[in-house]
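Two proteins, back to back. First:
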Amino acid sequence: MVQALNESGIPALGVDMSAVAVKRARSRGALAIQARLAERLPAEGRWETVLLMDGNIGIGGDVGALLQRCRALVAPGGGIVVEVDSRPAWHQTRRVRLTADGSGYGAELTWTRAGAAAVRRLAGSLDLLVVEEWLAGNRAFLAIRSGTNSGHRELQAWPGRTRPDLNGPAG
């Protein structure tokens, strides 16, 4: 995703806790750093959009805390695009082990899978507004904006741009 955005002339920074993922992104010419979203990140509060492209919105197991952190990363009026579970009402938290080589010896962490309905409810309680929802193949996505300055009016999720095709080649 970072490579595609950069090639389109859109500044983007990949952030991943996995050294393997960062190395892979950098080998493709993308700007990427190894860090956790909870750590201090470059240009905090000035990004136009945060993309959570981890297969679901589950990093760390606390969807509310993750949404609040993303809101802190974007500039006022900025957006958050998240991949959600394709089952709208689904909401499950569990412990998982991520590995890069299939060895089973990766880091264990808490992971949540949440569908659009569950994330909508949570976003509303955090003064965030879901402005768009779409499917790309078997993947589901939400575009979210801060509700503080928007009231309840309709917002355009991608002002002046075509919504990105998030169903492109994997990898």
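And the second protein:
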Amino acid sequence: MTITKSVTYAATVSGEVVNGARVPLSVNGDRLLDLIALAGGAKSAVYDTFVRLSRDGVTVTIPMERLVSDPGENIFVQPGDVLTLVRVPQTYSVLGATGQNAQITFNAERITLAEAIAKAGGLQDLRSDPTGCFSSASSPRPS
């Protein structure tokens, strides 16, 4: 059996992938995750990566985590599509009586409030009131 691929029947993969390239599509069709795999996979963790698909002048961006977990999002690629993987680290801000006041990256899919405070150096015993702790994590979306 021979599988034929045409250069005109291709899509482009770029951004946070191991080998960005113009990828020939198979005759039976390829899905988004197939194209990412053909480009060597994502460089960044799934929870920090967003997938941007540009097709016919329209661009849509979704978290890669959703693409991986929801088979309905893994749509077929069409010739001329441009698939770009974008790394957007998820962060949270820590202010007040902690070891450091800063914006800190999660470096994990999810973290608890206790883990977040620990990553900021913990509460300072002489300055902190544990009843005043609350969380507010940001989830930036690439434009």
